[in-house]
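User: Structure tokens for both sequences below?

Assistant:
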Amino acid sequence: MTATAVVIEAPGEYRLVEHTPRPPEPGEALVRVHAVGICGSDREVYQGNRPEGYVRYPLIPGHEWSGTVQQVGAGVPGSLVGRKVVGEGFRNCQVCDRCHAGETTLCTDGYEETGFTQPGAMATTLTLPARLLHVLPDDADLTAAALLEPAACIAAAALKAHALPGEKVAVVGTGTLGMFAVQFLRAASPAELLVVGTRTDRAALSREFGATEFRTKDEELPGDFDVVIETAGSADAARTAAALLRRGGRLVLTGIPAPGADGLDPTDLVVRQLEVHTVFGAPPDAWAHTVRVFGAGLLDPVPLVTHELPLTEFPQAIELVGAGDPKVGKVLLRP
């Protein structure tokens, strides 16, 4: 079987099937998938604990991907054929007021996303609306580019943080999102860049990406930062991030704690006049920013990849992602 796709039939049930590319309809493009990343949300889809309304079975998963355009439908520029691309996941309506404002992740027509409610990239090809594509430089490393979806989510945070040259900035969390946050903030030429994590084994990589200091959350932490981006996805991390800020500082939360978690103290937010932003997904401007930064050589996803497996080893990849092994970083599947 040369053309393969992963199909999750229901929670805990998957199968490998023969994949037949779907010809692009008007406004669509057919992409040959080069690599697809796995994250915690893919594991949620497989285990069945993705929130209701945010998954539709049966499903070809895969929302982090890179590839090359093979064919386009009517109304799509033929010059796209042969180009290396990545693509937005949110299938926004482009008609509602939020979409017109560029806030496509807030589309009021309901949630639809590649790899969750629409067929994803764990297949030889992916057919999707061409308007969601972002073209990469001709010499782009497509393996590295498969990580640009999580990078785009952090780009959205970086744009909201609006870190200025010479400011003191910090990142809470040392996973894939945290390491991308370090790189985006480093590109803004900060005076200081602190990374706060739970494991000292991430200190060297943090410094490689541009951090000037690393501390664990149990160490004494300063409280005079202008900007903090939180990426760890826990209420404790959010409180740690807020405590790092000076009065009037800017906080961006990107992690999603478990429902019912005790959050930030509203009195503290008001009295200290903190500016709080949140991010869920990435709108087009964040994607465009990510591709620019990547093309300029300021974003290096490669050190985050620890495993590359064939698509047929999907269950092993899911196990790796959920193992909690500090030696497991980003896991990629290759169709």
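Moving on to the next sequence.
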Amino acid sequence: MKDFLPILLQVGIVLGFGVVTLAISVLLGKAAKRTPAKDMAYECGMIPQGGAQPRFTVKFYLIAMLFILFDIEVVFMYPWAVNFKTMIHTHGSTIFWSMAGFISLVTVGYIYAIKKGVLDWKKS
């Protein structure tokens, strides 16, 4: 328990500061009148038009997911490529064939995405 005392003390100070700050704000703050004009979003002096959240097609999300998948592929491949020479001495050709299997699985996913038309922007 002695080791955790500084952490508990810091958590207590942080929580106390947050509660005291909010209490002072409520007690000393002045409540303003709410009107529709004041509640409207400020757009550089212009009256906002349209909804708050524009609607995106599913294609944007599919491209984002594909980007994340292939970005993670690079995250796995870069350290493998940097350490390939040292790993080939310890693991033999197993290290090469394991990465070849990984790349083939990712390639199958990429071909599937192309066949489904995920990357075809002109298709509706």
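User: Anything stand out in the second?

Assistant: The CA atoms of residues 77 and 99 lie 8 Å apart.
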